[in-house]
Each structure stands twice: as C-alpha cells, then as structure tokens.
Amino acid sequence: MSAPTPEAGHELRVDWPDCRARGLCAELLPERIALDEWGYPVVLGPVPEDQLTLAREAVTACPRRALHLVRR
Length: 72
What we know:
The chain has about 70 residues and is α+β, with helices and mostly antiparallel strands. The protein has helices at about 25-30, 50-60; strands at about 10-15, 35, 40-45, 65-70. Strand 2 and strand 3 (about 40-45) form a beta hairpin.
C-alpha cells in the first residue's frame, strides 16, 4: 500500500446519528462548515493544508464527537 500523496488532502465528515446540530463546528471553522436551515453542518469541500489546525480544533471541540477529519 502506498502512502497518500500531498494532493490527497483531508476532508471533514459528519456522523449524522451522533450530531445534534449545536453549530459549534461552524462557529470554529466557518470557512469549511455552514449550517443548513435546521442547524446541521454542511461541509464545504476539502480542508486546505492552511486550515488543518482549525479543522482539528473543530473536531476536538464537537461535544458529541460527531465531526471527523479523514484523509481523502
């Protein structure tokens, strides 16, 4: 198995059964997460390298642990 290439990047994923639409993730990372009309997160594309630290902070801050950062 080969190592991921730098272009592979990261993306955010939401574990829908665990999400309770608190909106903290969108407050911490508005460049990558918007809220729909019910307050649930909508991920706005892959996470650029310069936003990885903020994405990790949003993942850590999620009170339900419903937000995950994964390699694409």
